[in-house]
Known about the structure:
By secondary structure, the protein is mainly alpha-helical. The protein has 4 helices and no strands.
Amino acid sequence: MSIFLSFLWVAIGVILLLFLNLKFKMHNILALILVALVVALLEKMNTAEIASTIEAGIGSTMGSLALIVVFGAIIGKLMTESGASQRIATTIIDKFG
């Protein structure tokens, strides 16, 4: 029964996250932290562990994405300085109008 309740809390969290993002236009990170807090409270997690658990989850996600974002920014800057981005934009506009 507890596994069912855990899945139910996560499903409620996903619905709440969609609701906050789509209806209230809340910032994604803020909505995600709020929903994580709500799900942790519904799961009756120890209040002392909630902050460290949310921090670990966000830290691991941001840590894995940071490298992708940095390399994307470097490639974007190189494309802008070389004129490649302008050429790509011109080609797309010529092809599709």
